[in-house]
Structures are given as C-alpha cells and as structure tokens.
Amino acid sequence: MSKIPNFSLPDQTGKLHSFSDYKGRWLVVYFYPKDDTPTCTKEACSFRDAIDILTEQHIAVLGISKDSIKSHKKFADKYHLPFPLLSDESKETIKAFGAWGKKRFMGREFEGILRKTYLIDPNGEIKKVYEKIDPINQPQDVMNDITELRKLD
C-alpha cells in the first residue's frame, strides 16, 4: 500500500496532531461527514466504547471532518469521546487521503466527505482502507484486521 499523507491538524481542544505523534503505533484514521449526526455519532461512540481495548493493543484513533474546533468540542463533550477529533476546514488532509468526492443523497449529487477509515501501521503505511463502513462493528473489524496483519510481520 502507500504511505500516510503528512498532516498537522488541531483537535477539539486546539492541540495540533501530526502523524509523527503516532509513529510506532497502529493508527485508525476515520473520516466522517458531520458532527452530531446519527451515523457519525454511532461511529464515534463505537470507537469510544472500544477505546480501552484499542488502547491496550497500542492502537490510536483519530476522527477527521471539516467541522470547526468548536463543533468538535461540543460533539466530543456531549458523547464523552476520549480520542482526538481533528478539524480540517480547508479539506486539504481530507483530499490528500482521498476521502473527498461525489456523493448522492435524496436524488441529488454533490461533493463531500466520503465515510472512509484508514488502518495505518506503526511505520506510516496504509494497510487497509475501509469504504463500506459498519459504524457499530467497525472497531471490532479493525482489531481483527490488525491481529491478522501482526501475524504476517
């Protein structure tokens, strides 16, 4: 696969995050369309509910959308999300990952964030891209895939 695009984005507290902060650990980067919407909330809460197991396995989680820091803070506080939600209002990182494109909703086509998740190994290599997302079971799918990938190392 390919290397992770470089990024430096603020989280819901204003703290900057870049890949170098996570080098040496498995990283899950998930892109989602909008804070506090039904499917995005299910997805975020499923990662929240699995965070202890993910952390034990040395797996970090980052959510990224184009929403503002203020919106992320409100969303993270409301649902007690224990991982960074990164704000990419310029959409530069979203586009670099290929998570921006044509979408269809209620018969109309428009450009927007594609719900995608990237599984990145400790060296910064993208090992898997999830394009068909099950927002409830995604953390388990990620852990199963990491277990399999670790066997290959």
| Name given to the CATH architecture | 3-Layer(aba) Sandwich
* Largest sheet entry: 5 strands, mixed
What is the count of β-strands?
9
Ends apart, CA distance between termini: 15 Å
* Tally of individual domains: 1
In one word, what is the shape? globular
Oligomer designation: single chain
Mean pLDDT across every amino acid position: 93
Tell me what portion of residues adopts beta-strand conformation. 25-35%
SSE order? EEEHEHEHEEEEH
CATH superfamily: Glutaredoxin
What CATH calls the topology is: Glutaredoxin
Low-confidence stretches: none
Topology record:
Layout: E1 8-10, E2 16-18, E3 26-31, H1 38-56, E4 59-65, H2 69-79, E5 85-87, H3 92-96, E6 100-105, E7 108-113, E8 116-120, E9 126-130, H4 138-152
Parallel strand pairs: 3-4, 4-5
Antiparallel strand pairs: 1-2, 3-8, 6-7, 8-9
Summarize the structure.
The protein is of the alpha/beta class. Helices cover 33% and strands 29% of the residues. The chain has one domain: Glutaredoxin.
What does the model show?
The protein has helices at residues 38-56, 69-79, 92-96, 138-152, and strands at 8-10, 16-18, 26-31, 59-65, 85-87, 100-105, 108-113, 116-120, 126-130. The chain is an alpha/beta fold and 153 residues long. It has a five-stranded mixed β-sheet. A two-stranded antiparallel ribbon has the order 1-2. The radius of gyration is 15 Å and the shape is globular. It starts with 7 loop residues before the first strand and ends with a helix. 31% of the residues are buried.
